[in-house]
Amino acid sequence: MSRSRFQILLIVLLTLMISGYFTVSENVTITRGVKIFLRVSMSLFAYMLYRIISRQYVAAFEKENRLIEIFYYMYLLLGFASLLWSTKPGYSLLQLIMTSQSLVFVYFFVKSIMLYNHYNSKNKVNFHLVIGYSVFWIILVFVCGRWINPDSFFRLTHGGDVARLGGYFMNPNELGMLAVIGLGMLLMDIYVRGLKPATIFVFLILLYALILTGSRSSMIGFLTIVLYFVLKSKNTKLKVGVLSLVFLSIPVIVNMIFIKQGDLEEVLSMTGRLPFWKALLTEGLPKEPFFGFGFMRIAYTDSFQSVHTYAGHMTHNTFIQVLMNLGFVGLFIVILQMTVTIRASIVSNNSYFSTLFTGVFIPIIINSFTEFGIYGETNFGILFWQLIMFLFIFRFAKHMTIKQRVKLKSNPIEY
Fold first, then answer.
1. For residues 43 and 55, what is the distance between their CA atoms, to the nearest angstrom?
2. ∠398-404-407 over CA atoms, to 5°?
3. Residue environment code for 215-239, b if the CB has 16+ CB neighbours within 10 A, otherwise e
4. Tally of CB atoms within 10 A around 144
5. Residue 408: exposed, middle, or buried by beta-carbon count in 10 A (0-12, 13-18, 19+)?
6. Which of helix, strand or coil describes residue 283?
7. Residue 312 forms beta bridges with which residues?
8. Cα angle for residues 16, 17, 23 (degrees, 5° grid)
9. CB of 315 within 8 A of CB of 298?
10. pLDDT for 122-162, tens place per residue?
11. Cα four-point dihedral sign 127, 129, 134, 138
12. pTM to 2 decimals?
């Protein structure tokens, strides 16, 4: 299979998989049907793709950094165990199934790319382009929808005074995070391959969408990624120029994104999140401190109620979410899992994977402090976290099995 065909196929698979997280219709039944179909079918296609590639090339994988995988499985196993005490077992099971399903997709998706690239070292598939262009095609639909059907693609907030890109299809903050992931991949492409006309066009589309989402956390993520790639550059003039531009643009960004959408008090309270978190930790957590209320449950009822803040069904912080649904035991496992994954990216000899990890990690971790996050209710932040953690798990075995040696000998040209 040629690289271009393989890369296009990967982009299609990832695009459709990400689309499975969107609310495609206001009809709940239709939305659930589409989500189930897209997610399950993409997992099956990812498995079939791996089978096709592994027939063409010798699959001789072994695993390193096993603690990344072990701690993640421990997190999921604790989630399944929590069905015994969950305040709503059916909901917890549904969330566990969806998280596990995305893990299956990522497992075969990443493995297929690594296998292909191992035998095509001079014509590799670019991970960052697969992610970047998958994000682009989704964001392009929203940008076009902004002009064609603004009533559906915009969501009115702050009493109807502010219109934010996303509509009923997706939370604007989540859509903003997706746009930043795409922008990060394009900045990586500029860093790796240099500036291309197509890259500039796609970059501007994604940046335009990010601004339209009005997401404060995503804008912080974007500025952080820009600084990261600029500081990695060896071009001193570029560093000075970009840093100066970012510094000068801060007042405009603060006025347009941070202040324009609410008064200063609202900004300082993080749109009411701070008092909500305080109530969760002081009123809710003491009721079930060690093992929580069950996977993705934060109270005995469907939403957490407090006289001091608004009612909510999720915490808007992925770490507090874990603390509430799996207690201190779950949070301990999650912190260990994240720590060993970050450490693997730092000590890795593969600078490309380390850069890719950082480019994706920055927006999803910033989003994790204010929204669903990488350990929260099902969202594509979880999908991207699973994707980048598997970068440091698979590697090719130094010693092949007898079966692999026979296969290699029978088809030496492929090697």
1. 19
2. 135
3. bbbbbbbbbbbbebbbeeeeeeeee
4. 12
5. middle
6. helix
7. 304
8. 80
9. yes
10. 889 999 999 999 999 999 999 999 899 988 888 877 666 67
11. positive
12. 0.90
Token pair 């970012």 in the structure block, residue: 246
Q: At 307, which amino acid appears?
A: V
Q: What are phi and psi of 353, to 5 degrees?
A: -65, -40
Residues 327-359 pLDDT 10s: 999 999 999 999 999 999 999 989 999 999 999
Residue 391 DSSP symbol = G
The set of residues, in sequence order, having a beta carbon less than 8 Å from that of 268 and lying 6+ positions away, is none
Give how far the C-alpha of residue 363 lies from the chain's centroid of Cα atoms, to the nearest Å. Answer: 8
Three-state SS annotation for 44-107: HHHHHHHHHHHHHCCCCEEECCHHHHHHHHHHHHHHHHHHHCCCCHHHHHHHHHHHHHHHHHHH
Radius of gyration of the chain (CA): 22
Report the DSSP beta bridge partners of residue 394.
Answer: 63
Residue 112: name the closest of 100, 124, 102 by CA: 124
Q: How far apart are CA 54 and CA 51, in angstroms?
A: 5
CA distance 372 to 382: 9
Distance between CA atoms of residues 144 and 122, nearest Å: 37
Packing angle, helices 380-389 and 351-368, rounded to 10:
150
Between helix 127-148 and helix 197-213 the angle, nearest 10°, is 50
